[in-house]
Specification:
The protein has about 55 residues and is an all-alpha fold. It contains two helices and no strands.
Length: about 55
Amino acid sequence: MSHQFLPVQYPSVRIALEFREKREMRQAAKEMKFEHAADLRDKLKYLRERELVVR
């Protein structure tokens, strides 16, 4: 899977990005756009994994 975003090293920016992605994921699920919601879920998982590596 290729991700087209950079890992975020600043906690406040990372938190804001995670919040936005979660909100978008929930909205996509409400609209029954399950593939898009799953892509966002995977993106969030990737961000969290990268955070563990960066620290």
